[in-house]
Amino acid sequence: MNKHLPNSSYPTSPPRRALVIFTSHPVKEAQRKGLGKDLHQTQAIYRGFLQHLFSTALAASTKTPFDLLVASDSDDQSNIDRALAGVSDSASYQFIEHRGNNFQDKFSSALRNAFSRGYEQVTIIGNDCLDLTPEIFSQTFSALENHDGVIGPAEDGGFYLLGLKQLPETLFKDINWCCQSVFAQICDNIGQLGLRFRQLSLLQDIDNLRDFNAWLQSPTGISAQLKNYLLNLIFIRPPADYYYQPFLARFHRDKRYWQLPPPVFSFYQLSA
Q: Which terminus of the chain has a lower count of CB atoms within 10 Å, N or C?
């Protein structure tokens, strides 16, 4: 059975590597991104995203050992457990509770927390880049052997991955988050610090409905099974008697439906 590890158990990976998945409670994700037709559908989409990232991370860790950490809101642990249980019944993770009043505070806090646990290489990703592969994680940790950091630029001008061996105090200085120049701003800070960074390939992340639709229509086969699940979720037709039931009855039935966990994704074959 998968479990949330106590703080005394880290680090377990021999090279002291950690992958941090930075996320938040599905209600917040639903309100912020609005990817579905309603709150419950958006929450189901979020859980599909998270489960796919767990599958990708666990597949990568069988070849390049690292520990899995998840940074989120304190009341999100049950959602995380459900998503991870759909991928593996034996995988474990460490939980980092969000600290701070804004994105930069929470993001920096998650990184500092990971390093304070004794990790020497920390890679952090969000919950919205679905084209990440096990090979990208392996490339990242391999590059950290002889680079100060690794960064993956996103098509919207941000970044989808950041790998570090330490967290410089001014790395995020004067960053104007949630704009199209985040990647350029952080690269300026990297240059001023004189750090040697490896840049990864450009990938798409999903911040809104337009990004989501573009990803669903993209030709990549990396996440074919996840795409099928999401398309079925979005375009499913309710039964004929749906329109003849009282509103509240429909609402509670929909709520139960969208709260079901996503199916198990087996795109990446995990070793026993």
A: C
